[in-house]
Amino acid sequence: xxxxxxxxxxxxxxxxxxxxxxxxxxxxxxxxxxxxxxxxxxxxxxxxxxxxxxxxxxxxxxxxxxxxxxxxxxxxxxxxxxxxxxxxxxxxxxxxxxxxxxxxxxxxxxxxxxxxxxxxxxxxxxxxxxxxxxxxxxxxxxxxxxxxxxxxxxxxxxxxxxxxxxxxxxxxxxxxxxxxxxxxxxxxxxxxxxxxxxxxxxxxxxxxxxxxxxxxxxxxxxxxxxxxxxxxxxxxxxxxxxxxxx
Length: 246
Known about the structure:
Elements: H1 2-20, H2 29-57, H3 63-68, H4 88-109, H5 115-143, H6 147-160, H7 172-179, H8 186-202, H9 225-234, H10 236-240
């Protein structure tokens, strides 16, 4: 179960950190604040999941230890969330993909047989439901906007689509957790995620890229170069001044 919780925690931790990088760089003040607040929500989810992971690990580790003292190979997030922010279209499409995923994920996990996980999912579901409303509005706005906004969104789709498949990877360990009623079935998640995303795409002039490669490896600690660079920044203070306190 630890690996599963670690994957969920790392997805939110890295995604929240990516969004935090927009602070002070948003396209306008209101959206700058909205991106930052979304980041705080997601980092709050990461903290709850990391606390649960540390509890399951049972070796005295804390959420901070897991966040700041692991090297890149120790992270189990999907490669999608570590991709650079790029332009606003890239960031919001990545966010939309993850918001759709998280709404379906937390809906299922709210009924998890693990009470702690169910409580985290129930609380998180309220936040990600609002996040999805925001990202859906931006998808409609960009996809039905100017030629430039449509082109930028299509470029983002071309780059990010091949990373989404990793959200639904299966494994024997995950199958056991699904059978125990702890985890969400990745097949079920994929069906509902694809239905929602393709329904939106059908209302636009956007096209799914046809090349068949699929990113993989993040769940086993094999990441793009972008994660290591991001961790250098995220973990600097704790690495430079171990156990520092404010």
